[in-house]
Amino acid sequence: MATESGGAAAVLTAQTTPANDAETDWFPVLRAGDMSVRLARSPADIGAAQELRYRVFYEELDARPTAEMVRLRRDFDSFDGICDHLLVVDDSAGNDGAVVGTYRLLRSSAVDVFGNFYTAGEYDIDKLISYPGEKLELGRSCVAVGYRNRPTMQLLWRGIAHYVFHWNVTLMFGCGSLPGTDTRRLANPLSYLYHYHLAPPAIRPRAVASRYVPMDTVPLGEIDPKVDLPPLIKGYLRLGGFVGDGAVVDSQFDTTDVCIVVPTELVTERYIKHYERTTGRNGKT
Residue 107, Cα to own-chain centre: how many angstroms? Predict the structure, then answer.
C-alpha cells in the first residue's frame, strides 16, 4: 500500500475531524466475549488505530516511515481525516480496552465532498466510481500480534457487513498486498489471480500506466495450483471478489499490490445471511 504522508497536518486533521458519538450512534458496539468492534469516536480512537498501524507496518513488516511518522510513532496520511475507522477492541485490556485490529473505510459520498480515493494513486478506477450506488473503499487493515485468529477476523467482517448494510453499499474495493517487490518471484500468484479472478470489463480497474506491472506472465496451463495468497486476499475472493488488470509495486511498504473489487450482490449468500442475522439480532450497545 502506498501512502500520502501529508506531514503533521495529516495527523492534526485526523485528530480534529473524527466522527463523534452522535455521528456513530447508528453503529452499535458488536460484542463477542471480551472482544468488540465499533467505529472510532474520538481523536484518541483514531490515534490508537494509527499507532497499531505503525507497529504492524513499520516495526513488524519493515515498511519505510517518514521522519514525522517515526517521531509520532503513527502511520498516517491525508485520508485519515475523511474516513471512518473500524476498531476491534480487547475490552479485557485495561480500563478502556486496547485496539487490536482496524480497517479504514471511505465511502464515495465522502469522496464527492473531499476529493479522491486512496486507490486512485495506483489504479484508474473510473469504472468503479461510475458504478451505481454507494461505493466503499477498504484499506489500512491490520491486526496486532496475538490476535491474528478467526474470532478477530470474524469481528472485523461483522463490522464491515453492518456498515455495508447500513449505507446500502453496492461495491467494495481497495488495494490488496502481496509481500515483497520482486514480481518475478510473485509471478505464480499474480498469474493465478489474473487467469482465475480477473474482474469483468465493466468493473475492471487498471493500474496507472506509469506503475503498471503485467500479471499474466505465467501461461494458464503452467500455473502451480498450490498458489500461496495472503489470507486477506483469500477472504476477498471467498466473498466473490475479483482483481483488476495490472499489479503495482509499492516500495515504501515493500509490497506488490493488486486492486480488489467486490460487488456486494456477489457476496456469498452464507456471509450475507450470517452477518445480517448477527448484527441485527446480537448487536449490543
Answer: 12
Dihedral of alpha carbons 125, 130, 131, 135, sign: positive
Under 8 Å between Cβ of 113 and 175: no
| Least confident range of 76-80, 196-200, 206-210, 263-267 | 263-267
pLDDT tens for 226-279 read: 898 998 899 899 889 999 999 999 999 999 999 999 999 866 455 555 555 544
Of the candidates 281, 4, 5, the one whose C-alpha atom is nearest the C-alpha of residue 162 is 281
Contacts 24+ apart (CB under 8 A), 126-132: 127/202, 127/203, 127/204, 127/205, 128/171, 128/173, 128/203, 128/205, 128/261, 131/170, 131/171, 131/203, 132/170
Give the model confidence (pLDDT) of 91-133 as tens digits. Answer: 999 777 899 999 999 999 989 877 899 999 999 999 999 999 9
- Which CATH superfamily does the domain covering 7-282 fall into? Gcn5-related N-acetyltransferase (GNAT) (3.40.630.30)
Phi, psi for residue 27 in degrees, rounded to 5 = -100, 110
Helix, strand or coil, per DSSP, at residue 177 = strand
